[in-house]
Amino acid sequence: MIKKGFTNLGILILYLISLLPFWLLYILSDIAFVFVYYIVNYRRDVVQQNLRNAFPEKTDRERHDIERKYYRYLADLIVETVKMITISEKQIRKRVVATNSDLVFEYFAKGKSIIAVAGHYCNWEMAALNFNFVTDKRFMIVYKPLNNHTFNDFFIEIRSRFGGQPIAMKQTLRKMIEYRKELTVTVLVGDQTPVASDTHYFANFLNQPTAMFLGIEKIAKTIDAAVVFYDMKRVKRGYYEYTLVPLTETPKETAEYEITNMHVKYLEGMIKREPQYWLWSHRRWKFKPEDLNR
């Protein structure tokens, strides 16, 4: 009961902070950056190791520059995520723009549902909220449940504010089969780390073998959905645009791992273009291929 009380208090505080205007939130972000980067040193060892492995060709100074820019952006991402609690539809439409939403209707005209693959890049959550306004068809957002049930329910509420339907990761295939007679859009984050027991494929990603989540191509082939990739760009502070990049509209004709390799390659290119906007503090490389053979 005490733990739940503190959790509810934390949610109330976040709600009140979310009512602040963006300009004031970004002042808080500047303060948070100093605290997280210089005082707490939040996961800086993880970030530095990830950057060394991903960009061995860069100098220490270049990697340090990416690291610092990343933490500046992480602070912005935190306050923007808090703002999503109360952000209006008008603000979402203003701050996140889809450059080629017509592609969605082209696929629907062909009778194709859509799987949109995102990465932990830029503000992927805000982009998903914006995608709600592209179509009035069933819109599903796949998420990985949090251990804290109160916070988990809280984030489900945020993701469903504008009509999206959050789906727990393990229920995705079942739900997709359930709605297979409808035209739907499903957003999945493609750079999730699978658990070791569910790892069956490693792709070369950012200069190292990386365990890959295969659910995207499995679902695409099961329901014969078109697969697109979110190419996201940060236009300026608090403003984004995303382009839907076609990967395949004939998933059943692709070879094993082909769809996975396509979205991994595109994500890698996006990260290399502006690396500071990827989630470097995530422990993405928890194990290697040789670890599974022990």
UniProtKB/TrEMBL annotation:
CDD domains, sorted: LPLAT_LABLAT-like
GO molecular function: acyltransferase activity
Keyword tags: Acyltransferase, Cell inner membrane, Cell membrane, Membrane, Transferase, Transmembrane, Transmembrane helix
GO-annotated biological processes: glycolipid biosynthetic process
Matches recorded under InterPro entries: LipA_acyltrans
Any GO CC annotation of this UniProt entry: plasma membrane
Main localization category: membrane
Cellular localisation: Cell inner membrane
Transmembrane segments: 12-40
Signal peptide start-end: none
Xref: PANTHER family: LIPID A BIOSYNTHESIS LAUROYL ACYLTRANSFERASE (PTHR30606), PHOSPHATIDYLINOSITOL MANNOSIDE ACYLTRANSFERASE (PTHR30606:SF10)
Protein name: Lysophospholipid acyltransferase family protein
Originating species: Mucilaginibacter rubeus
